[in-house]
From TrEMBL:
GO terms for molecular function: oxidoreductase activity. It comes from Natronolimnobius baerhuensis. This is Phytoene dehydrogenase. Keywords: Carotenoid biosynthesis, Oxidoreductase. InterPro entries: Amino_oxidase, Carotenoid/retinoid_OxRdtase, FAD/NAD-bd_sf. GO terms for biological process: carotenoid biosynthetic process. Pathway: Carotenoid biosynthesis. NCBIfam families: crtI_fam. Residues 17-488 form the Amine oxidase domain.
């Protein structure tokens, strides 16, 4: 990257993308100031701490360890300098709602045997599927994720076409998985990762079968202290690079342009040379910018397909939760109706698929002695009516469902309870319609079809985070920070820079 010495940058929003871009920009010499509307950094990767319990409020899966290694390696550091990792075994447990239960472990041979129990030849098919997934991952990451291809001509370049040959670019994940497995439970196992992309089997491109390589081959890990410890590490790295941070300081307006910005806040204005926005893209454009400086109008945002919101329970529970693994999925034998009630006919799901996380299975610092920390997430449609009465009724239904389908009855053992849902996502994170993740990864919202890192109307204004490329998830937002910083340096860099990490 080129040097940004003497350039001042305000990063609005301290989510993963904003924190990542701040590190990259500071490393090139920029004076970087991160402002965050909430009381802590991390954005959706915030933490909740109450009465000796600690919960990751949002992301709780540590996937794609190679991305974290690459991020810290860019600054001549390693993740292990900041936190330790545990390889989870099992990776996760699945309860199907017909009294069936499976564990997915790090042992691929055991998993192949498991698949054979459901369908003859499925073990060999899994091997073939994962080989394709690995190919998609390696080619996709190198040529389409770490490189920001923002124009159609970037994709019709002969070299790009050569690299893309053989990738599963078109078709849906549902059709792709059906080419390998007939049994509906095996299809569900291969598709559950779509939740991390905010999609469904029918609307997510087959390219994202690469997530199975992430799951089965790269493994599922736990950073000591949870995802919050990863946020602490990125903030600590930023501090070492010279980034300054302000929490409880929301931006209320963005005015001006390159070299003459005015970022209004309740604590007084900031006047940076450049601005990077890590708030939700629609919020920045519709609420912070004047109408004449918006790249997209309200109709554009209204027409997008959004990832689900979520109904979340953070529960402190007396005693152990032996039936549940660190990561547990509870899936109806037919989950099409749940996805339909998210994307087609929005409603609170009647027979939900959901996720339970028990970090106290791995980390005894997240709950008082003799207690467990349980985090329950039910994907729901954004924009739903979200009243206290609806939440209470749904909470009771979910706890009943957990007891019925996992054998874990906690209804009389709860000593701490917090809820978080659609309205909270909208108010805490300024997310459109209370989506938990942002823009879904449909074919028309993938790669160059996502909003760009550069503002279409304002010189010197940039965007970072899950709504831009490469998309949703902690690893993708880390990469988004790098891509945004590269865009800034391409536009305003002065000379070839020697990053701080190399000035030793």
């Amino acid at each position: 990257m080129q040097a940004l010495t003497d350039e001042s940058v305000v990063v609005i929003g301290g989510g993963v993308g904003g924190l990542s871009s701040a590190c990259y920009l500071a490393d090139t010499g920029a004076d970087v100031h991160v402002i965050e509307k909430n009381e802590q950094l991390g954005g959706r990767a915030s933490r909740l701490e109450r009465d000796g319990f600690r919960f990751d409020m949002g992301p709780s899966w540590y996937l794609m360890p190679d991305v974290f290694e690459r991020f810290f390696g860019a600054f001549d550091r390693t993740p292990s300098e900041y936190y330790e990792l545990t390889h989870l075994d099992p990776h996760y447990r699945i309860f199907f709602k017909d009294d069936d239960q499976v564990d997915i472990t790090p042992d691929l041979e055991r998993t192949k045997e498991l698949f054979e129990e459901y369908e003859e030849g499925a073990g060999e098919q899994l091997e073939r599927y994962l080989e394709k997934s690995r190919e998609n991952y390696e080619v996709g990451m190198e040529h389409f994720v770490y490189e920001d291809r923002t124009r159609l001509r970037d994709f019709v370049d002969l070299d790009v076409a050569r690299q893309a040959r053989g990738l599963s670019l078109l078709g849906s994940m549902q059709g792709h998985v059906e080419n390998y497995f007939d049994h509906p439970k095996l299809q569900q196992i291969m598709q559950y990762t779509l939740v991390f992309l905010g999609g469904s089997p029918s609307n997510t491109p087959a390219l994202y079968n690469l997530m199975s390589h992430v799951d089965f081959n790269l493994g599922v890990w736990y950073p000591e202290g949870g995802i919050g410890a990863v946020i602490d590490a990125i903030v600590e790295l930023g501090t070492e690079l010279g980034v300054t941070y302000d929490t409880d300081r929301p931006a209320t307006a963005i005015k001006g342009r390159e070299g003459a910005f005015l970022v209004e806040t309740p604590d007084g204005p900031l006047r940076p040379d450049l601005v990077v926005s890590n708030t939700d893209y629609a919020h920045t454009e519709q609420d912070l910018l004047p109408a004449e400086q918006r790249g997209y109008d309200a109709d554009y945002w209204d027409a997008r397909t959004y990832a689900p919101s979520a109904f979340l329970l953070y529960l402190g529970v007396e005693g152990d939760l032996e039936e549940l693994a660190h990561h547990t999925l509870v899936l109806p034998t037919e989950w099409d109706e749940h996805f339909e009630q998210i994307f087609d006919d929005p409603a609170w799901p009647d027979d939900p698929a959901y996720y339970c996380c028990v970090p106290s299975e791995t980390d005894d610092t997240v709950a008082p002695e003799g207690h467990s920390a349980l985090f329950v997430l039910v994907p729901v449609a954004p924009g739903l009516d979200d009243t206290p009465e609806i939440r209470q009724n749904y909470r009771d239904e979910v706890l009943d469902d957990i007891a019925a389908n996992t054998g874990t009855d906690i209804r009389d053992r709860i000593v701490l309870e917090e809820q978080f849902s659609v309205d909270d996502f909208a108010s805490r994170y300024n997310s459109y319609d209370g989506t938990a993740l942002g823009l879904a990864h449909t074919l028309r919202q993938t790669a160059l079809f996502r909003p760009p890192h550069r503002s279409k109307e304002v010189d010197g204004l940039y965007f970072v985070g899950g709504d831009t490329t490469p998309g949703i998830g902690v690893p993708m937002c880390l990469i988004s920070g790098e891509l945004t910083a590269e865009s800034v340096c391409e536009d305003y860099g002065h000379q070839t820079a020697q990053p701080q990490s190399e000035r030793k």
